[in-house]
Amino acid sequence: MNIQPYIAQLLYRYQCVTVPGFGAFLTEIQSAQLVESSNSFFPPKKMISFNAYLKNNDGLLANHIAQAEKTSYEYAISAIQYEVFNWKKALQENGLFAIKNVGNFSLNADKNLIFTPFDQTNYLTHSFGLSAFVSPMVKRELFEQKIEALEEDAIITFIPERRKTSAYLKYAAIFVLGLGLTGALGYPIYQQQIANETILVETAVQKQVQNKIQEATFFIENPIPAVTLTVKEVKMSYHIMAGAFREEKNAEKIFNQLSSQGYKARRIPQNKYGLFPVLYGSYATFAEAETAKQEIQKTENADAWILVESL
After folding, report:
1. For 20, which DSSP code?
2. How far apart are CA 60 and CA 57, in angstroms?
3. For the chain, which ranges sit under pLDDT 70?
């Protein structure tokens, strides 16, 4: 089974994709960039790096492969282990190998693993459809030179205009000034009169409204029916597996033991392999399940793993 396409699929959705026994691919969002030297513009993208020290199985890749291939989690783990074995063999024999759309791996002189990511694929979904482009340089100096040349050639001559003032314009101005003074004095008196009449009308309306309120009798002919709220049940799709037992009595024994220890243990129906699974508990999100799994691996069961399934 080729697991490389599944790694690329998960990089679109998650910041960390771990390949058990090999390492983890980490993503970091880089803002849009402008390279002034080449007038190039680049959209936001996810930068991919590799950490060879993060090798523990977090269940993400295996569960994704199991769902996509419609197979068991155990088979997906085996497929990952076989692929990792081939990668390490290619490094030993050829000194390099590539994961499609992700990057190249090689060994340096000190036999240390070197990862070189591919730049052609942008795993940031918000930048879908955006690509890098080069803009031609805007040459502003040419326009400035043309404007300066036009300013030097243009000669503007101002000729004062002589007007003859007629005597009747003086009298017209005096008449207009008189009207302005009359309006300036009369307008405040007119405004005050309007304000007084408005207060009288508002007072009368308020009295009528108060009388209507005192005489009114309020009743409800058709009462509003009670509102019934339906709370949607939260799906617990992430489960921490304690073990799967051939004998049902052993599964019941472990279930009772976990319940007495305070776990919200569960038993699920017999699977297609004839085993009786027992769960430490179920969680609504992968983050909650991952936190609980790490604590259980430290204190109770180092082999505990996450089952992703809607039960």
Report:
1. T
2. 8
3. 33, 36-42, 125-234
